[in-house]
Amino acid sequence: MTVDEIRELINLAAETGIAELEVQRGDNRVRIRRAGFAAQDVVIGSPSSAVSAFPAPPPGSSAGHAPDAPSKGEKPNDPNLVLVKSPIVGTFYEAPSPELPPFVRVGERVQPGKVLCIIESMKLMNEIESETSGVIESKLVMNGQPVEYGEALFAVRTV
After folding, report:
1. Cβ distance 100 to 114 under 8 Å?
2. CB atoms < 10 A from the CB of 55, how many?
3. Which residue, of 29, 39, 99, 110, has the fewest CB within 10 Å?
């Protein structure tokens, strides 16, 4: 990949608001990650080496995570509490558009198949549905925040 191609990818990510973009050509891989729309992290190289073209967020910074959100591998203490996790990397949206109300609110009862949120990934809107019946106990991600694969989005108390 040329530097011009990498610049073009950075501009594409900035223009579209994509939270993370990864492109691989042979042994070369480029990943652009936007943390809170402030810093960009670009990694270039083969699996054995990497060079950072932009500074990463400082270690220990929470980069927009909710303060009481369980970490990815953490299990809730309550056996009746189910974590709804993101099946993909993308941007979390709580409503179908900015002027419409959220799909669900804390305290609302949900049934299997109820849309909880949208995860935008590569300009595709992916609806995340409830797999259990219960009550939304908490929303663990802020609207517009980048999310990772397996990151907890909601805690649902089963009924």
Report:
1. no
2. 9
3. 99
Between CA 34 and CA 88 the distance in angstroms is: 16
The pLDDT profile of the chain, 159 residues, written as one tens digit per residue, is 677 887 887 777 777 777 777 777 777 777 777 655 433 344 444 343 344 444 444 444 444 444 444 444 444 567 888 999 999 999 999 999 989 999 999 999 999 999 999 999 998 999 999 999 999 999 999 999 999 999 999 999 998
Residue 91: helix, strand or coil by DSSP? strand
Number of H helices and number of E strands within the chain?
Answer: 1, 12
Domain ranges of the chain: 3-52, 81-158
Task: Please report, for residues 39, 90, 116, the alpha-carbon distance to residue 57 in angstroms, rounded to integers and kept in the order given.
Answer: 7, 18, 29
Q: Which fold has domain 81-158?
A: OB fold (Dihydrolipoamide Acetyltransferase, E2P) (2.40.50)
For 137, list phi and psi in degrees, rounded to 5.
-85, -45
| Contact present, 116 and 128 (Cβ < 8 Å) | yes
